[in-house]
Design goal:
The protein is of the alpha/beta class. It has three domains: about 30-245 and about 455-465, Aldehyde Dehydrogenase, Chain A, domain 1 (3-Layer(aba) Sandwich); about 250-440, 3-Layer(aba) Sandwich (Aldehyde Dehydrogenase, Chain A, domain 2), CATH 3.40.309; about 475-509, no CATH class. It contains 17 helices and 21 strands. It has helices at about 35-55, 55-75, 75-85, 90-115, 150-165, 175-190, 205-210, 225-235, 260-270, 290-305, 320-335, 370, 385-395, 410-420, 455-460, 485-500, 505-509; strands at about 5-10, 15-20, 25-30, 120, 130-135, 140-145, 165-170, 195-200, 215-220, 240-245, 250-255, 280-285, 340, 360, 380-385, 400, 405, 425, 445, 450, 465-470. Strand 1 and strand 2 (about 15-20) form a beta hairpin. The longest helix is centred in the N-terminal third of the chain and has 25 residues, at about 90-115. It is globular, with a radius of gyration of 26 Å. The termini are far apart. It binds nicotinamide-adenine-dinucleotide. Nicotinamide-adenine-dinucleotide binds near residues 208, 211 and 229.
Length: about 500
């Protein structure tokens, strides 16, 4: 049974009717925003952005401080809306609220410092001038988001774009629209000016329309397949796109790992948010020497987890389409010789989308479960001879989002992490936690994405950079100004030889 149904209305508009993934009860419906309405929203945003960009960082931070207060006052309402959209466990609903508050506070506090003008004395060639670098807002940013963190993935880039002086138009996933809709309401309650944050409910057609509605940047979070389409559309218009895409993150358990920590960390990394995390642990490579003990611990840990919505450890899948895809991957693996040590099927006797946490062994890279993104509660574990083989296997993937290394030796862990072709990694830590650590930035290598969100690099991606060169002192008639003279060319030849042909010249420059 599908969680959403698309109805064609008499006036050619579309209505999407949604069911809860917990029990398939009706939870609401919305009308898909049309391309004309998307265009009108972008025009409105452009007008509103002018006054917003004129505010100081301090003034924008004051708006965000009010938003943060509204977030705090509305915690239960936000959690209930996320739960309605997704059926998540309580802990995972509160995790989204914490992530939202942390990002709002962090960028309100630090964006002004990160984006302030810098002034540099250039190298000797331009030594008599001053260079000023300034960050300006892009204008209007389109933010397109997925269904796995329906609140956090909308608000976290939004607050960064706002602090940088942009207006945003957000298009949440059609699978979990109500969390995005609530963001619009909370922004209103915080008194953020009309037109600065608009949320448009819709499906892929709305997202596609947003990419071509005259925005100045698209911040896209979603699948590789859609990300490539969005990237092409933006490239054609020469507008920038940040693409935060899928992953197939490896965990490497070394021979010297603290196995208790590794078992708990790997289980949590794979099953947090029911595995519906871009940086979820989706492939586990365990060195032969500790394989049997690790598997024994992992099976015990996974079997001890309580599966339900609300007060539980692991909840349901959010979208039936993804669940069906995972079942195909599990069948492909078992058909090719994989063995199921836990789970492997839907929870019996209930209507919701509950796939039992599943451990698979005897897996290899001929199986979809080891090559394609799963995005669900499955832990395929592969025995490897040593750490070198684990790194080779880990890098044998078109994805490169994050990963983790479990070892008693943090120094060696760091060296191993550096050998992974990924945008992030954890050492004795779930690599996905890099997302919440705003001193860093989050982004993917290979097919996992282009560009970064969060941190200074992510914040600056919402800006245009301008460099201004200011004349300070020096000859009135600079060497390359008209009229060109024979003598100047001769002087330049001497300058060239001195500057680039002598040790002192090279040192000076
Ligand atoms: P998706 O690509 O199907 O949809 C994402 C969003 O794009 C939705 O809002 C959808 O309506 C919209 N969309 C669809 N077609 C479009 C088009 N042609 N133009 C513009 N927008 C369009 O992805 P999904 O299934 O919602 O999300 C799951 C994926 O998101 C997974 O692959 C997951 O790994 C990835 N993800 C990545 C990150 C990250 O930070 N790297 C975070 C969360 C999720």
């Amino acid at each position: 049974m599908a969680i959403f149904e698309v109805l064609e209305n008499a006036d050619a508009s579309k209505t999407i009717r949604l069911k809860s993934p917990v029990d398939m009860s009706a939870i609401g419906e919305f009308t898909v925003t049309t391309p004309e309405q998307v265009k009108a929203a972008v025009v409105k945003a452009k007008k509103a952005q002018i006054a917003w960009a004129a505010l100081s960082y301090q003034q924008r931070a004051e708006h965000l401080a009010r938003l943060q207060k509204v977030l705090l006052d509305s915690t239960d309402e936000i959690m209930a809306t996320i739960a309605k959209d997704s059926g998540k466990a309580d802990m995972e609903c509160i995790a989204e609220v914490i992530g939202a508050c942390d990002a709002t506070q962090y960028y309100a506090k630090h964006a002004g410092k990160m984006l302030k003008d810098t002034s540099k004395r250039p190298h000797l060639f331009f030594g008599m001038k001053k260079l000023v670098r300034t960050y300006k807002p892009k204008g209007v940013v389109g933010i397109i988001t997925p269904w796995n963190f329906p609140f956090a993935t909308t608000i976290v880039p939004t607050v960064q774009a706002l602090m940088a002086g942009n207006a945003v138009v957000v298009k949440p996933s059609e699978v979990t629209p109500f969390s995005g809709q609530l963001l619009a309401e909370l922004v209103k309650r915080a008194g953020i000016p009309d037109g600065i944050v608009q949320v448009l409910l819709g499906d892929g057609s709305t997202g596609a329309a947003l990419c071509e509605a005259g925005v100045d940047k698209i911040h896209f979070t979603g699948s590789v397949r859609t990300g490539k389409i969005v990237g092409e559309v933006c490239a054609r218009q020469l507008i920038s796109a940040t693409l935060e895409l899928g992953g197939k993150d490896p965990a490497i358990v070394c021979a010297d790992a603290d196995l208790d920590r590794a078992v708990k960390g790997v289980a949590n990394g794979a099953l947090f948010n029911t595995g519906q995390v871009c940086a979820s642990t989706e492939r586990i490579y365990v060195v032969e020497a500790v394989y049997d003990e690790f598997i024994k611990g992992l099976v015990a840990e996974v079997k001890s987890l309580r599966q339900n919505s609300g007060d539980a450890d692991v909840s349901c899948m959010i979208w039936d389409k993804q669940l069906t895809m995972i079942e195909t991957q599990i069948k492909d693996a078992t058909d090719k010789g994989a063995q199921v040590l836990a789970g492997g099927q839907r929870q019996q006797g209930r209507d919701g989308l509950f796939l039992e946490p599943t451990i698979l062994v005897n897996v290899d890279h001929t199986m979809l479960i080891m090559t394609d993104e799963t995005f669900g509660p499955v832990l395929p574990v592969m025995k490897v001879a040593n750490e070198e083989e684990a790194i080779l296997m880990a890098n044998d993937s078109p994805y490169g989002l994050s990963g983790s290394v479990w070892t008693a030796d943090n120094k060696r862990g760091l060296q191993m992490a550096k050998q992974l072709d990924s945008g992030g990694c954890g050492v004795n830590e779930f690599g996905g936690n890099v997302y919440g650590c705003h001193e860093g930035s989050f982004g993917g290598s290979k097919e996992s994405g282009l560009g970064y969100v969060n941190g200074e690099i992510g914040l600056k991606s919402f800006c245009k950079v301008q460099h201004i060169l200011i004349h300070k002192f020096g000859p009135k008639n600079e060497g390359n100004w008209f009229p060109y003279e024979v003598k100047t060319v001769e002087d330049m030849k001497k300058f060239l030889k001195f500057m680039f042909g002598t040790a002192i010249g090279r040192w000076l420059s």
